[in-house]
Specification:
heterodimer, A: about 375 residues, alpha/beta, Transcription Regulator spoIIAA, 2 domains, 4-stranded mixed beta sheet, 4 strands, B: about 260 residues, Rossmann fold, 4-stranded antiparallel beta sheet, 9 helices
């Protein structure tokens, strides 16, 4: 009955039958493997026979077919259509119950018209749709910023409504668990900065000033920036994937129908954790970076005490706090963009992937843009 | 040839399944015969779907063997496992269609990957499979554009793409309306009777069980084993277990609900 049923089956064969006009006789097992081999040659043969067939009928004897599966039926049906294209009707003689049954869907399909025939719309339609999509996305972002702002204000006035356990869980995942990678990158950054500048400075006998250079650039710029990019890659992506998967599984809808605001429930804890964790990570990155730089300067004959004095002389509190403030803003940006992209996720697994990508890309762009804005702002404020 | 005298396609021997220290079912023994519609029954949480996942080789048994066509699926690997898997079609509970592909592409995927059929033949087979489950007109839709019931039917079409000899269906009619559910039963009967497929179904829908099942086994959470094995109609009348008779008889043992009783 079935090919995998065990036992040897006769191979598929097609032979000409005697008679006038000549017909065909199919025998053996017409399964996928047989169809793979016979698809081209047999159709060619039937077309040739159909052209010869005088009285408009080509008889194909299938009584000796031991087995025919869905692919076999596809071939038989294709033969009938090939014959019909030559103006000949192909009659299957001795088709048993199985063959008839297998052919049913192929015959039915001739009557079926697709529910939506052509999915390719004209360029005008596509343009309108694309513009609409961009507009909708912009509108959604504005709405999200508004909702988030309101939710954050409410969290400020009613701190008891905030889901602090979620916030702490996120803070642990985004902050504490990030310490190894932050340590590695910050340390290497300190080492590389110190080493590169020390080589140049040595020509002027100014190796000691490497400490100033590294400290100021780390505290004001590189510490917060590096940390924010790491946060975007590690946690912004995770937020988008988590919320996106919840969206796909209709968990976000479930929250809404339980009259729970997804922004308060899912977004606020993550954003608060981001704001909380980012300055701490930046501070940690600064210190580890200094450690790396200090180690390098040991090799250039500058002792720890001299390095420490130089750093405390070079970095003011305003350098430190402007950097940490920036880090806090970056944390807010990364977390809220991650959540926004998560909430914008469409249907299916691929949509989760694209919102994760978009969360990281958007976050990095925003980080760079805001960093530039802060540079101008701090310059004018004299910070 | 009736199913009762046909050779076994699947033989489960002394199967113990569970997770880590937790044993879900102990020492299961049964056979599925060729051309049979075989239904795995059981209450919620009794391990029906888990048993199915053992039978298709997704989970490794804690003990025991699962013979499919003379090979133990838990210990098969490489080319042998691939041959075994090609002979089986599986429909998952939620359909598990690939969301980024149209229905046609979903059904065509196994053909593309496992056969060297010409493109036209693959398309024809895939469309016919969709037509067989009544979705011939929806070939160009992506799964998110159609209903849950249609997704399930499309998943059956995909499971049948390679003409498997055994078809596994995990809760095919759960979440469907009675009419669609009967249509699905009719399809399953047709596949088994006309095309000679062996079909293993996880279900707890009584109406379809009596309509289509040749044999049922019933898993029991309490005793962690099979409490009934046989023809569902006969079990309903003759089973030694009162619980089995109640389950198959549709009685809920005092848990019946009458919408009049609580009204004020």
């Amino acid at each position: 009955m079935n090919p995998a049923a065990g036992g040897q089956r006769a191979p598929f064969q097609h032979d000409a039958t005697d008679g006038d006009p000549p017909g065909l006789r199919l025998s053996g097992t017409l399964d996928i493997a047989a169809v793979e081999r016979a698809w081209g040659p047999l159709r060619e043969r039937v077309r040739a026979l159909a052209r010869e067939a005088g009285d408009g009928v080509l008889r194909v004897d299938v009584s000796a077919l031991e087995f025919c599966d869905g692919a076999g039926a596809a071939l038989l049906h294709a033969l009938q259509r090939d014959a019909a294209a030559c103006g000949v009707s192909l009659e299957l003689d001795g088709a048993g119950h199985m063959i008839e049954e297998q052919l049913v869907p192929y015959r039915e399909l001739e009557e079926v018209t697709p529910v939506r025939g052509d999915r390719r719309a004209g360029w005008r339609h596509r343009t309108v749709q694309a513009v609409g999509k961009v507009g909708r996305a912009g509108w959604e972002q504005m709405a999200f910023i508004g909702e988030l702002g309101r939710a954050l204000m409410r969290a400020l006035w009613h701190p008891r409504q905030v889901r602090w356990s979620d916030t702490l869980r996120v803070a642990e995942a985004a902050g504490f668990r990030a310490l190894p990678i932050v340590s590695l990158i910050a340390f290497l950054m300190g080492v590389i900065l110190a080493f590169q500048s020390a080589i140049a400075m040595r020509q002027f006998g100014g190796e000691i000033f490497v400490a100033n250079l590294v400290a100021v650039s780390l505290f004001r710029e590189l510490g917060p920036l590096m940390m924010a990019i790491l946060l975007a890659g590690r946690s912004g992506a995770a937020f988008a994937a988590e919320i996106g998967t919840m969206k796909v599984n209709e968990e976000v809808n479930a929250l809404q129908t339980m009259a729970l605001d997804p922004v308060r429930f899912l977004v606020v804890p993550k954003v608060l954790a981001g704001i909380l964790v980012a300055p701490l990570l930046a501070l940690y990155a600064n210190l580890i970076g200094l450690l790396g730089a200090g180690l390098v300067l040991q090799g250039f004959g500058i002792p720890w005490v001299a390095f420490f004095n130089q750093v405390t002389g070079a970095v003011s509190l305003s350098d430190l706090f402007s950097g940490l403030f920036k880090a806090g803003v970056f944390g807010l940006l990364v977390a809220s963009v991650g959540c926004l992209r998560g909430l914008q996720t469409g249907n299916g697994a691929a949509a989760v992937g694209s919102s994760t990508t978009s969360a990281v890309v958007t976050a990095i762009i925003l980080i760079v843009v805001f960093d530039g804005l802060f540079a101008v702002l701090f310059y004018h404020l004299g910070v | 040839m009736t199913a009762a005298e046909a050779e076994p396609v699947i033989r489960v021997e002394g199967l113990t399944m569970g997770f880590d220290d937790f044993v879900l079912m102990r020492d299961l023994n049964f056979e599925v015969r060729r051309g049979e519609i075989f239904v795995i029954l059981g209450g919620s949480g009794s391990g029906k779907s888990t048993l199915l996942k053992h039978m298709i080789g997704l989970y490794a048994p804690q003990a025991g063997r699962i013979w499919i066509g003379g090979e133990d699926i838990a210990h098969a690997d490489g080319a042998r496992l691939e041959t075994m898997l090609r002979g089986m079609g599986v429909m998952y509970q939620m359909g598990a269609l690939f969301g980024s592909m149209t229905l046609l592409e979903n059904v065509r995927l196994p053909l593309e990957e496992h056969t060297s059929l010409p493109r036209a033949a693959m398309d024809a087979v895939a469309r016919a499979r969709l037509q067989l489950v009544g979705l011939g007109a929806f070939a160009d839709f992506v799964p998110s554009e159609i209903s849950g019931g249609m997704q399930k039917r499309a998943a059956i079409a995909r499971a049948m793409a390679l003409d498997p000899s055994v078809l596994f269906l995990d809760e095919p009619s759960a979440g469907l309306d009675p009419i669609t559910s009967r249509e699905l039963d009719r399809l399953i009967l047709r596949l088994a009777r006309s095309l000679g497929m062996t079909i293993v179904i996880v279900s707890h829908e009584l109406a379809s069980i009596f309509a289509i099942a040749d044999r049922v086994i019933m898993l029991d959470k309490e005793s962690r084993g099979i409490v009934a094995d046989g023809d569902p109609r006969r079990l309903r009348e003759e089973s030694a277990h009162p619980w089995v008779r109640r389950f198959l008889g549709g009685e809920t043992g005092g848990a019946e609900v009458d919408n009049q009783e609580v009204s004020a």
